[in-house]
Every structure is written in structure tokens, then in C-alpha cells.
Amino acid sequence: MPQQRAATQVRGTERSAARRAELIAIGRKLFADTSYDALSMDDIARHAHVAKGLIYYYFRSKRGYYLAIIQDSVADLVTCAADGLRLPAVDRVHRTIDGYLRYAEHHQAAYRTIVSGGVGFDTEVHAIRDGVREAIIAAIAEGAYGRGDISPLARMGLLSWVCSVEGATLDWIDRPRLSRDTMRELLVKTLGGALRAIEELDPAHPAPAPARRDG
């Protein structure tokens, strides 16, 4: 009997997680086409073909639902960008940038929400966005220096580059005049410039050979 109860609880947990994931997937599509303020909980429930109480059960409020959707989108972005950790360092940097661009290209609404910080000045969404930035910085630092524990100057140099990437990527998905391959190579080149500037000001963080002009 205890084993049967445990198995029933596991199945119930799995069904609950699957239902929650299904609601998040529906929400990602809804918020991709409609603004946050334009969607009521009644609208969401109608599109999801569920009782409104079920959404409250899983997410407590529309804001909780919205934050869960953003966090799910962020997890996808970070996964795409961090893919290829077993690759050589230089290939890892290229893969990180390519994964980042690929995500932005195929999930434009989610990317805009992450980078813009959500609805108005939302401190929780901004914190989520800042977490994405730190994850990208860590991935680039591992690829460039082979470690994540970098100096404040090196971090600031990489953060400046990441912020410029966000602006450039937003413009690129709005006006896609460059191929993803070209965009990736452009960002790799500007990263090289950032790494050389970091080395000049902080010799303890030498730019990797591919970033050197004589490399």
C-alpha cells in the first residue's frame, strides 16, 4: 500500500507539472500576440479552454502567470546560449553567440520581453533579465578565460558588450537585413575588441589568441 500511494503521488505530480507546462506554453503564445494589459484572466482561461480557477491554482494571479512565462522563456534562452560547454573554448564562444541569436530570431516576442524588462519598470522582471546577462557573461568568460571568476573590470567589459548585443539584436530581429551567420561574426569581432580592451586595462585577463590582431 505505501508503494501504491507513492506511485500515485508521483503520477499526480507528473500530471500537475505537465499541466503547468501546458498552461505556460499557451501563455507564451498569447503574450506573443497580445499585450499584458489587453489580456484578462477570463481571456486567458478562454484561450486555454480551462476554468479560470485552474490558472489561479497554479500561478496565484495574472502577474504570477506572466512571471512564470518569462522565467520559462529565460530558461530556454540560457539553455540555447550555454549549449556546447564541452566544445573547445573558441568554438564555445561562437556557439554561445549563435545560440543567443537563434533564440532571439525564433522567439522574438519572448526575447523582446526579456530584454526590455517586461511591463513598465518591473523590478522582478528586471532581476530576471539581469540573471540572463550574468549567465551570458559567465558563458563568455568560460570560453575566453577558461574560468568564471573574473575581475570587476573584466566583468564590466563583458557586461558592456552584452548590453550592446541586446540593442543590436533587437534591431536585427526588427529589421533582419543581415543573415544570422553574418550577425554572429560581427558580434564575435566586437567581442574580440572588448577582450583586447579588457587585457589592456587588466593584464591579468589576457585576450585569447583568436581575439588578438596578430592571432
What do these coordinates show?
The chain has 215 residues and is mostly helical. Helix content is 76%, strand content 0%. It contains nine helices and no strands. Helix 5 packs across helix 6. It is elongated, with a radius of gyration of 21 Å. The mean pLDDT is 84.
Radius of gyration: 21 Å
Poorly predicted segments:
none
Mean of residue pLDDT? 84
Q: How would you describe the oligomerization state of the chains in this entry? A: single chain
Shape: elongated
Biggest β-sheet strands, sense, barrel: none
- Overall structural class, as computed from helix and strand content, comes to mainly alpha
Report how far the terminal alpha carbons are from each other: 68 Å
| SSE succession | HHHHHHHHH
Classify the helix fraction into a percent range: over 70%
Strand percent estimate: under 5%
DSSP summary: helix tally? 9
Total number of β-strand segments? 0
Task: Provide key terms for this protein.
mainly alpha; 9 helices; 215 residues; elongated; single chain
